[in-house]
């Protein structure tokens, strides 16, 4: 399928260049352009395991289960009538990994990855598979969030408040380190379930990229460096979503990321972004702590001021699987004074953490740093 103006998102939501939303997306050019670049590289990089047909097949499943019929239809059309060997044990192991990661991200574990390696998947193909699945969950939420911004007539659909999801209750990691069992703003470590790359194996360009992002010694980044170009583009999207001037205050973007992490049960991501939210708005640390302390099954958008409640309501509804966000939430946020750029920032911050949470949860696990226990 041809993509006019080289922007799949704009095409799928039928966004014209002169529209306010298209102009607003251009204000966040780094996120917009690199989202397209991520699609281009993920679906073009060579892999003997993940042929283009299998990629489109998996992507259509992810989009449909995430709740974007528009995106699912695009991938189904891209697949066409190509026959697939759906009985291959390696394929079945990948599909089980996909189903868990999309619908129950906290339930992904070492055994799911071990099943992939048992059936011959190597690290570079597993990382490509993980990036494919998690990128499409981000892409679907971005599309559906933008579609809500386009709807002019208020919707009267109301959905129940989204609750905090399940999180870790195991006292030790796979490698025997102390495992956090409660959400915290303390710094945590993270260990991979696969072999990360040795920094000595990086070529000059890869090394430069890792140095630029300050991650040459990060086990997580070195693991994702099995697909180094995807890692680079994904990091540029992260910078384009969170490190931009104007729009939604930085602390509220970080708070939305922490709220998404509570839905998905990602203690590691929540610790990083709750800490950042508190750093950017020290007077709101109590709100951050309240979010983190929300027990499993309790509503997340509860007990804050009107603006933060509405922000949390949209962020958590967009993070749910399938997506539960509705236009009435946008109407309320506009009544509370949020601009189009602020709404875009909120949607992108939330959607990106569908991607971030699922990568962290499905490729390794956090551990407590001993000095934090003193």
Automatic annotation (TrEMBL):
Pfam families: CMD (PF02627)
Single GO MF descriptor: peroxiredoxin activity
Domain Carboxymuconolactone decarboxylase-like stretches: 234-281
Taxonomy, superkingdom: Bacteria
Protein's UniProt name: Alkylhydroperoxidase domain protein
Organism the protein comes from: Providencia stuartii
């Amino acid at each position: 399928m041809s993509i006019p103006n080289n922007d799949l998102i704009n095409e799928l939501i039928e966004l014209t260049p002169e529209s306010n939303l298209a102009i607003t997306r251009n204000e966040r050019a780094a996120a917009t352009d690199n989202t397209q670049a991520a699609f281009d590289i993920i679906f073009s990089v060579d892999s003997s395991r993940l042929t283009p047909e299998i990629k489109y097949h998996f992507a259509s499943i992810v989009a449909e289960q995430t709740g974007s019929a528009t995106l699912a239809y695009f991938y189904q059309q891209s697949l066409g009538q190509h026959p697939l060997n759906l009985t291959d044990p390696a394929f079945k192991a990948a599909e089980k990994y996909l189903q868990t990661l999309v619908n129950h991200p906290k339930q992904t574990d070492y055994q799911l990855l071990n099943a992939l390696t048992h059936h011959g998947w190597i690290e570079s193909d597993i990382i490509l598979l993980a990036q494919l699945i998690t990128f499409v969950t981000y892409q679907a939420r971005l599309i559906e969030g933008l579609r809500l911004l386009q709807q002019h007539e208020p919707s009267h659909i109301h959905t129940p408040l989204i609750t905090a999801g399940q999180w870790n209750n195991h006292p030790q990691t796979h490698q025997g380190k102390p495992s956090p069992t409660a959400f915290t703003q303390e710094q945590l470590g993270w260990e991979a379930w696969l072999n990360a790359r040795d920094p000595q194996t990086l070529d000059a360009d890869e090394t430069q990229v890792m140095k630029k992002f300050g991650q040459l010694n990060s086990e997580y980044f070195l693991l994702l460096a099995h697909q180094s170009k995807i890692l680079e583009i994904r990091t540029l999207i992260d910078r384009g979503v969170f490190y931009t001037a104007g729009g939604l205050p930085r602390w509220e973007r970080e708070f939305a990321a922490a709220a998404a992490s509570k839905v998905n049960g990602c203690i590691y991501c929540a610790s990083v972004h709750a800490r950042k939210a508190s750093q950017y708005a020290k007077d709101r640390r109590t709100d951050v702590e309240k979010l983190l302390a929300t027990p499993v099954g309790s509503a997340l958008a509860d007990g804050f001021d009107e603006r933060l409640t509405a922000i949390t309501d949209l962020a958590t509804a967009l993070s749910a699987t399938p997506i539960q966000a509705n236009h009435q939430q946008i109407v309320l946020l506009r009544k509370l004074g949020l601009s189009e750029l602020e709404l875009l920032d909120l949607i992108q911050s939330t959607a990106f953490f569908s991607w971030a949470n699922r990568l962290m949860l499905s490729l390794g696990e956090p551990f407590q740093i001993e000095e934090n226990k003193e």
